[in-house]
Amino acid sequence: MSETRFTNVKQLPSVHLLGSGSPMCAGCGGLEALHQVYDILGTNTVFVNAAGCMTLLAVYPFTPFRGSWLYTAMASAPAGAQGIRDALDVLKERRGLPPEEDMQVVVLTGDGSAYGMGLSATSGAIERGLDFLYLCYDNEGYGNTGQQSSAATPHGARTATDLTGIGFHGEKKPLFDIWAAHRPPYVATVIGSEPLDLARKIEKAKAIKGPRLIIALSPCPTGWGFDPQESVAIGKLAVNTGVWPLKEYVDGKVVHTKIPRRRVPVASYLEAQGRFAHLFKPERNEAVLAEIQARVDGYWAGVEEVVAPPTPTLPQGGRG
Amino acid sequence: MNRILITGNVAAAWGARLADIDYCPAFPITPQTEIIETLAAWIDQGEMPGRLVMLESEHAMVTAAGAAAATGVRVFSATSSQGLLYALEMLYNVAGWRAPFVLVNVSRGLAAPITLEPDHNDILAARDCGFLQIHCATCQEVLDSVLMAYRLGEDPSVRLPVLVNLDGFYLSFTREPVDIPDPSAVREFLPPFDAGTIRFRASAPESQAVAVLSGGPYSYFRYEMHLAARNGLAAYDRIATEFEASFGRNWPAVEAYRCEDAEQLFVMMGSFATKAKAAVDSLRAAGWRIGLLRPRLLRPFPEGLFRYWMRGKRGAAVIDQNISLGSGGVLYSEVAAAIHGQPDMPLLTSFIGGLGGRDIPPEEFFEMARIARDAAEQGQAPPPRLLYTADELRETRKLQTLARVERARLSGGEQP
Amino acid sequence: MKTAGRILGTAFFREGYEVQDAPRYGAERRGAPIFAFVRADKNPILERGIIRRPDLAVVADDTLAPMPSAGVLAGMDGHSLMLINSHETAETWRGRLALPGRVLVLPASAEVEVEGRAALPQVGAACAGAAARLVGVIGPDALAAAIRDELGHLGEGVVADNLGVASHAYDLLAAEAGAVTERPPQAADAWQSPDWIDLPFEGAGISAPAIHAGLTSELMQTGLWRTMRPVIDPERCNHCWWVCSTFCPDSAISVDGKGNPHIDYDHCKGCLVCLAQCPPHAIRAVPEQREQGRE
Fold this sequence. Notes:
The complex is a heterotrimer.
Chain A: H1 29-41, E1 45-49, E2 68-71, H2 77-94, E3 104-110, H3 111-117, H4 119-127, E4 132-138, H5 175-181, E5 186-191, H6 195-207, E6 211-217, H7 221-225, H8 231-240, E7 246-250, E8 253-258, H9 266-271, H10 286-302
Parallel strand pairs in A: 1-2, 1-3, 3-4, 4-6, 5-6
Antiparallel strand pairs in A: 5-7, 7-8
Helix pairs in contact in A: 1-6, 2-4, 3-4
Chain B: E1 3-7, H1 8-18, E2 23-26, H2 33-44, E3 51-54, H3 58-71, E4 76-79, H4 81-86, H5 88-97, E5 102-107, H6 121-125, E6 132-135, H7 139-154, E7 162-167, E8 175-179, H8 183-189, E9 207-208, H9 215-247, E10 254-257, E11 264-267, H10 273-285, E12 290-295, E13 297-299, H11 303-310, E14 315-320, H12 330-339, E15 347-352, H13 362-378, E16 385-386, H14 390-402
Parallel strand pairs in B: 2-3, 4-5, 5-7, 6-7, 11-12, 11-14, 14-15, 15-16
Antiparallel strand pairs in B: 1-8, 6-13, 10-12
Chain C: H1 2-14, E1 18-24, E2 35-41, E3 56-59, E4 81-85, H2 90-97, E5 103-106, H3 123-135, H4 140-151, H5 156-172, H6 204-207, E6 228-232, H7 243-247, E7 253-255, E8 261-263, H8 273-277, E9 283-287, H9 288-294
Parallel strand pairs in C: 3-4, 4-5
Antiparallel strand pairs in C: 1-2, 6-9, 7-8
Helix pairs in contact in C: 1-3, 1-4, 3-5, 4-5
């Protein structure tokens, strides 16, 4: 695996490629991740989109991309990527398309598509060895329609369809594991609040051929119930509490790229979000909180002390 | 002449091969499977270039087909029945991309109950999606129509995908002599696909199939698709003329068989229409002045040709091999709409038959001709007739008995 | 504004009116300008959709009023009354917007600097209260009941706050009770024929829903969304190069060669992630309304 060119936050791009003026919510954690990803991937890309919040990135005649875009449908963005990838290959092989006209094909979907309706198409694309990159912005619910529960909704979250009791009874589907079980060359989790980790993973994924799949946890002010300015803070809490493990699957192994040495209690992550407010008010639901904490603890107990590549921890801002 | 004995499925595959397709996303379904197996074998054995990829569903297959066409290559695909319906969301969707390609549908009745033999409810479910539709009656027509479909869909005045329909079993698995056109003549008739500006290239950013959020631009884009489809009428005539000049076969948008001096008409589409042709010949021999109108082009709908051929006729039996549940025959309502308000038009009578491959024997055609003639004489159309005989009900009753349907509840043909 | 529309609609309904109320959604998400409309009539309402000629237009955010893209002035004629939440005078607005009808001003937003969005007053409730008075047929009891109906699920505290704000606005406009009047329905004895055309066919290169260029989103002034504006204090900025610029979800902060960050106010949506993340706290938030007044 090639060494990264991102060893230090100061190497992160300070001029950005994704256009402003998109209609995503103020403080959107998905857009935060996408604009960082786009800086690394570059403009030689064609994004293949499935129904979700980001379908509205391109509303006629406005697009924030410098490169290309195709909207498909909720269930079949990876199949759209297949068609474009195959067509570009055939054009090069048969019709004299110059190689510099080729592009990276990038699937962009929300969790509703990635964890549910589009999973069959993703599975097919991985199994066919399709050379593409998949970016899932995961805001843990059908955000575009008002945050109903999806297969990515975490246990205990209130959603527009889980208004009472402890909220959502199910568990977040282990999409990372499901993807990794197909044994593609690369799977990773990222988050916009950890830009260096994200940049290194996208840099790595960009250089690999075959199916490369990335899930970006996307703090969602609208769907999760917090002030937009807290978007990055919530993301950092997701990592530091261990709720969102930053990891990659590469060469058949799962490696954690950032292991929170002293994990912050999950309650501080949950308490910052309206969707979990019922676990704290009128009184703390200790049982559910303990259950969620135990699940996170159990996860990390299962993580062997892996030889993670030494990751410089993010300084809390630059030091001048 | 290179005339060989092949099935309708192989004829469809020959069409794709002669069209020099670049790409075929595929998914198997009875009775279409032979088409993709044939193409896969040819590509594997180096007999034709191009790439065939097995997708995991028809929905994905049509997405990949549309995306590849939107990237600028010539695409072919094929499906049937449930597969076409599974892909229906994407049929509407990719038509709006204005990315032309050819999709062959091998007609088969729809579930439930699931069945294998043909009728036209599958292809008619895709009637309004923006794909143009060509309906075939012979294996030769299947091959020729695939070639014409590329010309039609890729025509700059159209630029829409095209469905070519052949009936399961009756064409798909039936061998007939088919003339395989000379590849160099085909290349002349059908030059390589020019995607124009709608394609993906690194040097020219292009956002395709972008959302719109208000009725003004939405109406514009949809109206333009409609205008493009309507342009298909003139484009089709032009292409059919060229095709005849190149290959000597004439495939008009509406086939009119012995209609010139006819007083009565059958109106029917698909492979069963050749049965209607045989009935026309028998009835003519018995002294009837009767003909057959068979639309090959269903979208765009050639209402001008219907008006031309129907003017001055006394009666017409429209035979639908489909049923719009709760309404009746789809072709009947299309034809009725085309001639309504026009002077000197025949009285239409509606018949529904051939569902799930159920045969229509000659005597049923004769009887339909009689009913249509009597109705025209009386100036009053009878209610639509569902073709079904007492024998058929008796046979079905036997099955119901074995299915342990309570005998006391059975009525009709056999009293409990 | 959606809630304000619902409060007004419910208040009409409680006064025995037939009502239509609805928000109008666009592509934009949370934080973007939003419209809502309310129709009320003693008879069943047959008209639907957007109000083409409003009797009353209530503008909660006066920064939107002069922006043609916001469409605030659509259909305003001599019969239309505009109520605008502003600290400027009605005459100023009437002149600035060249309005043929009357303008009333409702100073509902605080002039003092507030700490964040949460501290912004209940502008929606104020607008609903003021509108309820202007239409002249909604009593204080119906207004209060409507607020309970629409906000009750948020708890007694929220209801009480909004009741206070709404009734204050209601009282403020006592002299203008009934200033809004119903216009007669469109007569069918004479009309201007619609300018229908036979749409020309246009090739797919023109008529496909495709954008043949990049970055056109920058024509969208998402800066209009802001209620609070982040302002960088260059003295306190430690030129870290990356924090505000990387974390801004909207690519609205760039850093120049000298390490100075610049906020693109045409596009900054005012999420204030930059403020929350800036290590030396070199970014503060000021109310947008006041800042634009100053410009």
